[in-house]
Amino acid sequence: MRDSIRRTFITEDRYKILFSGLYTTFRLALLACALGTVLGGGICYLRMRDNLFVSAFASLYIRIFRGGINAVPSGQARAAKALGFGKFQTFRHVVWPQALTHLLPAYSGQFIATVKMTAVAGYISVIDLTKASDIIRSRTYEAFFPLIFTSIVYFALCTLLVALLRIVERKFNAEQRSVSKELVAAAEAFDPDFEPPQKAGNEEGKKEAKTPLVQIEHLAKSFNEVQPVKDVSFEVQMGDVISIIGPSGTGKSTLLALINHLEKADSGSFLFEGQ
Fold first, then answer.
1. What is the homologous superfamily of the domain 209-272 according to CATH?
2. Measured between alpha carbons, how far is 227 from 48 in angstroms, rounded to an integer?
3. What pTM value is reported for the model?
4. What confidence tens digit (pLDDT) does each residue in 51-97 have?
5. What is the CATH number of domain 7-176?
């Protein structure tokens, strides 16, 4: 066994052939995934074009990208539109970060599969890890150790890449992120009954403000049998900061869309500076 190991790895510096093949394999995998990602993103963009032929052609090649984007609820884009985001801003800041959490698992699996498929390149033009082991096997007539070494290296490489990709997934997935100690301490110290001290003259200024900046009265909106906004009334004074908080489906985005006139209200009135 010792003599077989020496002939396989030591004689004629054959270990250099293996490491050179490993470097070629790694470069091929990275290049294939980088080009594939850019090409997939470009085709995904073509899929969203209005041209019917281009859209039909692109839809065949963007399963991973399209699956991740379609997994994002449509209400997210509507909420971004209600906040004044354009199409590109909506995609970049709202849709794409959430789509990543859905497409990264499939993308990671495809990346690992690409690393394994680089073994085919050795039989075409380049000397990758698999081809290097075949060269050593043909010179030493020892098949066991070159193949065992190759399989161990592939296993270690794929394990390392899976670990790195999982770190990337946790970075983009808010549900898997670790919460910092500062944030936990701030949440524990939060007092819902705390009232900030009033500045001098602030009460007098409020009394002088007779007309609210924004005034909404009995606003209502329904979609068939669903009524997300029902008899909403409130006023906003100059300098007020308003937070709309609630679970999904309670009408937050619909209310913003009504205020921005992206949706037509069934009833109610909306006044800005009394008009």
1. P-loop containing nucleotide triphosphate hydrolases (3.40.50.300)
2. 31
3. 0.52
4. 565 565 555 556 777 778 888 887 788 778 877 788 888 888 888 88
5. 1.10.3720.10
